[in-house]
Amino acid sequence: MATSGLAVSLAAHPASAAASSNGSTGTIDLSVLDEARALAAAAPSAVAPAAATWSFDVPAATAILPPPPPPLVVEESPAQPPDGVASRSTSRTEAAEPNEPAPIGAPPPASANGSVVVEVASALVGVPYVYGGTTPAGFDCSGFTSYAYAQVGISIPRTSTAQRDAGTVVSRDQAQPGDLIWSPGHIAIYAGGNFQVDAPVPGKSVQIREIWQSDPLFIRIG
Question: Which of 26, 110, 139, 191 is most deeply buried (CB count within 10 A of its CB)?
């Protein structure tokens, strides 16, 4: 602002400046400087503060959280029946199971008269027929008879033809429970009366049944 005042003052007195620059004799009029100083002192001044502060409005921010997940629903398992009590549905399912093995074992017929061989043979009722089988996992006809005899300490051949020749043929009216009943291709154990115990055919199991052969041979072992 002082410079502006000085410029104005100098412009107002061109004659004095010209005289001074032309080298004319005289003194410099210092009143011009005094007038400039007065103008500078009277000029308004702007003073900036040493530390300026700034402020601005910040809009408020609101955080929006996602909704909480739905509560976990745990389905309760159906109540179990007390120990030893089967439910009706379980009983129906078990009853519907196909191919259930027949119960193993049956009482020997009264006509067996306490024959140990017939008792052993009757205990194997229900074992399935298996071609070539010689154990309680499965029997064929001669595998069954040889196994039953082995349980009482008597060894007989494996095949039905060899078993026919391993003993003595007796008449039907003299046959005793425990004797063998032979017919072509099949052999069984006589259970007294009109009964026999045998492993019949594939798909069947060891059973006690009536003698069906028309003219069998009764073979006594030992």
Answer: 191
What is the pairing mode between strands 180-183 and 186-190?
antiparallel
Residue 125 near residue 104 (C-beta atoms within 8 A)? yes
The H-assigned helical ranges of the chain are 2-12, 14-21, 31-42, 88-96, 116-122, 141-150, 160-164
What kind and span of H or E run contains 180? strand 180-183
- Cross-strand pairs, 197: 189, 208
DSSP-assigned beta bridge partners for residue 189: 180, 197
Grouping H, G, I as helix, E, B as strand and the rest as coil, residue 56 is: coil
Strands 207-210 and 180-183, sheet pairing: unpaired
**Nearest Cα residue to 31 out of 11, 5, 43, 13:** 13
* Residues 173 and 189: beta-carbon distance below 8 Å: no
Residue that is written with structure tokens 């398992």 in the block: 77
% of the chain residues with pLDDT over 70: 60
Q: What is the mean pLDDT of the chain?
A: 77
3-class DSSP state of 149: helix
Parallel, antiparallel, or unpaired: how do β-strands 138-139 and 134-135 relate? antiparallel
Which residues are registered as beta bridge partners of 220?
A: 168
Apex 133 CA angle, 129 and 137, nearest 5: 75
Q: Given a cut of 80, is residue 209 above it in pLDDT?
A: yes
Q: What's the pLDDT band for 38 if we cut at 50, 70, 90? A: confident
Position 108, amino acid: P
